[in-house]
Design a protein that fits this description.
This protein is of the alpha/beta class. It is built from 15 helices and 14 strands.
Length: 426
């Protein structure tokens, strides 16, 4: 609020723009102006080397922040969001004067930095950071056995240029963190871009993809855009660079957009795919991909991976790893407490973080130096987490899925039903 008061007192917009993100949009939320800070915030984690190509990405991010039914009659809309490891307060102001017609309505969006979403250790300070933050952090990513297997499979798919890979994971499994670790690994050999949000038309999707990669092309029909994109891909291929497009939360994409993304993998030169597409999402993504609408295109999808819950050893390794990265050298949890965390969390990383943070806070309130299993049990009770073993998937039938036949379980990847004897052999 101090920045806004300073703006009103001095009449200078420059100071606010330099310190915060500022975007001016029309009544349909199409960006008319965006300062460099707002582009960096809204385009994350994509590069901003060519801001003029990012209009599609900015538009989709703005739509994710502002409801479409926003009342334009006046007043202020305030929301909060996270970009990278930073929290932001977003204030939306409807600008209107006596000389404007209703169609000339302008909306100002101000994005101010808040506290860091994940507390990294400060330079020159001995205080450890937050080891159990909910924000994805490559430094804290733990390569347990199951995650290393999925990571290696997707990495090989990208390096061998096989086209399209699918990553399935339920909520809280660390899917986004794995994707960011994957992107960080392949950036030295491949151009990497993240597809932001969903799109209403295929043309918007193509322009957003080209913008994420920094490809400049005059506006036109989707065929013209694809031709321009294909020419750029050939240049990258001739230069020995790969091109990787990562789509998180792909279960929310329409069939038309999924079809357009799958068509990217059909672009090839010399028998090698020019674009490697990683589609990541929940169970509904698999159902959409296997529907009759996309059956013709999914034949070229060679890699299907699923993130399974961590076992007891992985949960212990996960907790110890994150404590070490945060700079903690003392014992925080007893052996029994670690076993209880594995039980109550069901091996889901998000649940592990929730229990650990709550347990540490609860122990501090009663001056307990080391968290024991009683503190973990109390935390799990407060968080309404039940003690039950983890399964290969979430253990619940999806909407519309028939009841699982007796004697059958999902295989290790959770992709098909097998007999219990077969799961032992795997």
């Amino acid at each position: 609020m101090r920045k806004i008061a300073y703006l009103r007192a001095t009449g200078s917009l420059t100071e606010v723009i330099l310190e915060a993100g500022f975007v001016l949009v029309d009544s349909t939320f199409r960006p008319l102006y965006a300062n460099p800070e707002s582009i960096r915030i809204l385009a994350y984690p994509n590069s901003v080397s060519s801001p003029s190509t990012l209009d599609g990405i900015l538009f989709q991010k703005i739509l994710s922040l502002i409801p479409r039914d926003l009342d334009l009659s006046g007043g202020t809309f305030i929301t909060q969001f996270q970009s990278g490891r930073r929290n932001y307060t977003c204030r939306v102001f409807v600008l209107r004067d006596h000389w404007e017609s209703p169609g000339d309505t302008r909306i100002a969006i101000l994005m101010e930095r808040g506290l860091a979403a994940a507390g990294k250790q400060r330079k020159g300070s001995d205080a450890p950071g937050d080891p159990f933050s909910f924000a994805p952090d490559n430094a804290c990513f733990y390569f347990g056995r199951s995650r290393r297997e999925v990571f290696t499979t997707l990495l090989d798919m990208i390096r061998q240029r096989r086209g399209t890979g699918v990553l399935l994971a339920q909520a809280g499994m660390g899917k986004t963190a794995l994707l960011e670790a994957l992107a960080g690994t392949v950036r030295s050999e491949s151009d990497v871009a993240f597809l932001p949000g969903s799109f209403e038309t295929r043309l918007e999707m193509v322009r957003a993809v080209m913008g994420a990669f920094g490809v400049e092309c005059p506006a036109g029909e989707p065929e013209e855009q694809l031709r321009c994109f294909h020419d750029w891909l050939l240049l990258r291929h001739q230069a020995g660079r790969g091109v990787t497009l990562i789509c998180d939360d792909a279960q929310d994409l329409s069939f038309e957009i999924l079809e357009g993304l799958l068509n990217f993998s059909s672009l090839q030169s010399g028998g090698q795919k020019l674009v490697q597409v990683v589609l990541a999402g929940r169970q509904r993504l698999l159902e959409n991909l296997t529907s009759f609408k996309l059956e013709r295109l999914t034949g070229d999808t060679h890699v299907y991976c699923r993130l399974a819950p961590m076992d007891d050893a992985e949960v212990r390794g996960y907790i110890v790893h994150r404590l070490q990265v945060a700079g903690c050298s003392t014992q925080v949890f007893t052996t029994a407490a670690l076993a209880s965390i594995s039980l109550y969390s069901r091996g889901i990383p998000l649940n592990v973080n929730m229990i650990c943070r709550h347990s540490i806070s609860l122990a501090a309130t009663i001056n307990l130096q080391v968290v024991d299993e009683r503190i973990v049990a109390d935390s799990a009770y407060d968080l309404v987490l039940r003690a039950q073993p983890a399964e290969a998937w979430d253990g619940h039938a999806q909407a519309g899925e028939p009841k699982r036949p007796a004697g059958l379980l999902r295989d290790r990847r959770g992709l098909r039903l097998v007999r219990k004897s077969e799961t032992v052999s795997h």
